[in-house]
Every structure is written in structure tokens, then in C-alpha cells.
């Protein structure tokens, strides 16, 4: 026989069950009685995860209005409530969590993905646009690589529309000419997934990237030779 559950564990279980069922009145009574919001299920999900998963706006607003609400706690897979909001293309829940302090720049410790990776993988153009409009996805975060060495642009090439690829490049993504751990560039991934228009667009961007890189290298060589020539004259 297993170890009997404690009173706290039983109370936590009843609380999470009521949250999952959308029983707002019961949840309110439990909270008034001192129920902790830190309770988690076997997957590490909190009450906030559940409210977002169920797209239960009323429950979500009730819970995040409480002191010490676990707005940004990750489950055992590294997913936070804001991750689920993005996966479900729920911009309203995302905005609510962001306003309450969810850190949208945090990287998933399990697979090294950013929220932009999540939005792109799900193919949600609206959520990609929402994330980019925050102004937080620039530079290193825009170019962040997951465990497979893939940036959000790599993911977009394989999973999303050509419009998403364009949105990322317009936002400053520079990984178009960079291969992942499997030597696949974004255009290669677009070809593999049968996205012909995305492939053509990415190849054009890759050519422009290569031309720019070549020009930079050439300018560097010219400056180096000029500096050498100046030194000889002296």
C-alpha cells in the first residue's frame, strides 16, 4: 500500500479539480478558506496552467488577482501558462499574463526554445505578430537556438507560412544563411516540408545575405591593405 495522502494533498487535489471544472464559486470559497495557489498536479501544472488550458477567462482573472499567484511557474516540461496561451493562439490570455508579470524573454530550460519558437511551431501568425510587437524579440533573443540549433526562422521555414518567415526577417532575423545541427538552412527546411514559396523567398534572402557578407569581408580586406600600404609609405 502507498503512503496515505495528507490533508493538504487532498485539499490541493480538490482545488485543482474545481479549477479544471470551472467551478468559480467553489474555488472562491477554497481561497477564502486559505487554499494555497501553489498546488500542482502530477505534471507540475498549476491552477493558472489549467485556467489557460481551458480558455477560462473568468477563472484566470480570479486566480491571477490573488496574492502570490504562480503566474510564471513552469511545469515539468518547462511550459509556463504563457506558453500554453501561445500554443492555443489565445492572445487575450497572453496579454493578461504579460500584464501580470510573465517573463516573455525566458527560455524553456528543457528544450531551449523561446516563446517565439512556440508561436512559430504552432503556425500562429497572430501570436508571432503579438510577440514581435512587444519589442522584446530582437538581437540574441530573435536568433536564439533550440537544442537542434534552430532559430525561430528555421522553425518557421519548416512549419509556418511564408508570411511568418517574412515577419521574422523584417524584424531582423539573420539566420537565413546559417545551418542547424543537421546542416539544414531555413530554405532546406522549407523544401523538405514542401513549402515552395517559402523556399524561393528564403533562397532570395540567403543570396542577399551572402552578398552582404561578401561585401563586408571585401571592405575589411581593402581597409587592411590600405593600412598596410600606409605603413609601408611611412
TrEMBL record:
InterPro entries assigned: Ankyrin_rpt (IPR002110), Ankyrin_rpt-contain_sf (IPR036770)
Pfam families linked to this entry: Ank_2
Gene3D superfamilies linked: Ankyrin repeat-containing domain
ANK repeat feature ranges: 77-109, 148-174
Keywords: ANK repeat, Repeat
Matching PROSITE patterns: ANK_REP_REGION (PS50297), ANK_REPEAT (PS50088)
Entry-linked SMART domains: ANK
Stated name of the protein: Uncharacterized protein
Organism: Prymnesium polylepis
